[in-house]
């Protein structure tokens, strides 16, 4: 009897030990938490986040804050099961599969490089959208930023090529060039007219299928030339989701009367040079960041509205849905003047 009791005690102790040890084993998940909230009208580390040179600019009270998500975990830094379970129980955090941010077919370095490029592109697009909204002219061209290995553009297109035409039709900017290339069945031919080293070349290519759309394997960006310099600096933050708030921040700096009327607004959403606002992820955590910052209103891309209903900040901050930069400007006008607040576009 004594031997049997001891065996049970030892077995129970081993099971408890294994359970406790298992709690600290690495797991392939990420924890998403509320991150930074940076006022694009203010400073970071003593430097202005948006600095304009060569054109008169203004400083105003109020806030137009970009917000971020902080991720913990990932390849080489996996979190343990205990941390994942704790985050799962937290109302302000979310637990995601590792591949949501780190696809298995891409290295951490490739992902970081992409996020940096996306941030750079979003800043340029934001300036273009802001100037367009203010009816300030600038020059815009579609340029090849890179070529993917093993796809039709490899060896045919080069980084720096300026795309002038697609199938003989002139294109202005990234959006037109990409749209024109996709306007065919995958596998159909496409001819690009490019400017390279001062010479014009016509380059025939066979398109390929990328996620159900025709493509040639070239990363196309906007080559934008502005009539004055706009510098945006947010440190090592990556990704495109601050585009909307950058555009509003630039507009505020260029507007004698400002946009906010002293109110605190935060938001998230990508933006194109044409002012179209796109959806992003992590809205639940970004709303908490905005609330902690003291924001009165949270601007969100209309495509991301479903995420606004599940945040710990839901009901604690006014959410405004926007589809284009013009929608955000109109909402700011209502907030600033106090007129038409009941008509602000909401998520529903």
TrEMBL record:
Listed SMART domains: PDZ
Biological processes per GO annotation: proteolysis
Single annotated GO MF: serine-type endopeptidase activity
Entry-linked Gene3D superfamilies: 2.30.42.10, 3.30.230.10
InterPro entries associated with the record: Lon_proteolytic, PDZ, PDZ_sf, Ribosomal_Su5_D2-typ_SF, Ribsml_uS5_D2-typ_fold_subgr
PROSITE patterns membership: PDZ (PS50106)
Domain PDZ residue range list: 116-183
Pfam family, one: PDZ_2
Protein name as it appears in the record: PDZ/DHR/GLGF domain-containing protein
């Amino acid at each position: 009897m004594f031997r049997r009791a001891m065996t049970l005690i030892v077995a129970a102790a081993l099971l408890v030990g294994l359970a406790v040890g298992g709690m600290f084993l690495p797991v392939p998940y990420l924890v998403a938490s509320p991150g930074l909230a940076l006022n694009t009208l203010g400073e970071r580390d003593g430097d202005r986040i948006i600095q304009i040179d060569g054109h008169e600019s203004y400083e105003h009270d109020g806030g137009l804050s970009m917000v971020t998500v902080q991720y913990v975990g990932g390849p080489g830094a996996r979190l343990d099961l205990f941390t994942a379970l704790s985050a799962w129980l937290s109302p302000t955090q979310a637990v995601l599969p590792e591949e949501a941010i780190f696809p298995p077919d891409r290295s951490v370095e490739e992902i970081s490089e992409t996020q940096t490029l996306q941030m750079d592109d979003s800043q340029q697009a934001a300036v273009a959208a802001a100037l367009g909204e203010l009816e300030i002219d600038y020059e815009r061209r579609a340029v090849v930023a890179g070529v993917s290995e093993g796809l039709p553009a490899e060896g045919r297109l080069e980084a720096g090529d300026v795309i002038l035409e697609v199938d003989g039709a002139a294109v202005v900017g990234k959006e037109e060039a990409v749209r024109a290339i996709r306007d065919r069945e995958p596998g159909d031919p496409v001819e690009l007219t490019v400017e390279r080293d001062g010479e014009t070349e016509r380059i025939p290519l066979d398109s390929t299928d990328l996620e159900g759309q025709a493509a040639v394997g070239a990363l196309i960006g906007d080559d934008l030339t502005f009539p004055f310099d706009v510098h945006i600096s947010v440190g090592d933050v990556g990704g495109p989701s601050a585009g909307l708030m950058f555009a509003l921040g630039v507009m505020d700096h260029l507007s004698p009367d400002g946009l906010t009327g002293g109110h605190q607004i935060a938001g998230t959403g990508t933006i194109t040079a044409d002012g179209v606002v796109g959806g992003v992820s992590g809205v639940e955590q970004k709303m908490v960041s905005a609330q902690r910052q003291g924001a009165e209103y949270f601007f969100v891309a209309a495509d991301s509205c479903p995420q606004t209903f599940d945040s710990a900040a839901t009901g604690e901050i006014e959410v405004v849905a926007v589809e284009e930069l013009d929608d955000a400007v109109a909402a700011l006008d209502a907030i600033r003047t106090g007129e038409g607040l009941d008509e602000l576009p909401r998520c529903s």
